[in-house]
């Protein structure tokens, strides 16, 4: 087993490293910044709407899923870039697959938001 911090010190260290990762991603990834700003705007609106707790959770989780996949994609791109600057088919493939994962997360999020909010909006417009 790898030596290192244990107990509460390990949790503190992990939290610190997670914060550093978020700061690095915020600094270098425009897409992540856009997605975070969108969530900062949309999530409070979603929680103010007359929705069930499950619907609110689905809206929140689908938005957070986008951030999760974006962070994983950013990490993947950083590792690929670390290997070297030259063009390689496998590097391109890895980056393309990561990008596709982000696109699918965005589509899933849009579907969840649409499925939950469209009936509410159409009911509001018809009344």
Mean pLDDT: 93
CATH class: Mainly Alpha
* Alpha-beta classification: mainly alpha
What order do the SSEs take from the amino end to the carboxyl end, as H and E? Answer: HHHH
CATH architecture: Orthogonal Bundle
CATH topology description: Helix Hairpins
Query: What is the total domain count?
Result: 1
Return Rg in Å.
19 Å
Regions with little confidence, pLDDT below 50 for 5+ residues: none
Distance between the termini: 64 Å
DSSP strand content = under 5%
Total strands: the figure is 0
How many helices? The count is 4
Function: Catalyzes the ATP-dependent phosphorylation of sn-l,2-diacylglycerol (DAG) to phosphatidic acid. Involved in the recycling of diacylglycerol produced as a by-product during membrane-derived oligosaccharide (MDO) biosynthesis.
EC number: 2.7.1.107
Cofactor: Mg(2+)
Pfam families: DAGK_prokar (PF01219)
Structure write-up:
With 127 residues, the chain is mostly helical. The protein starts with 6 loop residues before the first helix and ends with a helix.
Summarize the structure.
The chain is an all-alpha fold and 127 residues long. Helix content is 87%, strand content 0%.
Describe this protein with a few key phrases.
127 residues, mainly alpha, Helix Hairpins, 4 helices, globular
How is the topology of this model organized?
Layout: H1 7-28, H2 30-48, H3 53-83, H4 89-126
């Amino acid at each position: 087993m790898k030596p290192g911090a244990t107990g509460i010190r390990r949790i503190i260290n992990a939290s610190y490293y997670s914060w550093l990762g978020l700061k690095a991603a915020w600094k270098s990834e425009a897409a992540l910044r856009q997605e975070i700003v969108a969530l900062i705007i949309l999530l409070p609106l979603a929680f103010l709407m007359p929705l069930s707790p499950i619907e609110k959770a689905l809206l929140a989780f689908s938005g957070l899923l986008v951030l999760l996949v974006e962070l994983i994609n950013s990490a993947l791109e950083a590792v690929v870039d670390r290997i070297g600057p030259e063009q390689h088919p496998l590097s391109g493939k890895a980056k393309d697959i990561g990008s596709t994962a982000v696109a699918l997360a965005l589509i899933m999020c849009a579907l969840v938001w649409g499925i939950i909010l469209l009936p509410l909006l159409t009911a509001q417009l018809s009344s």
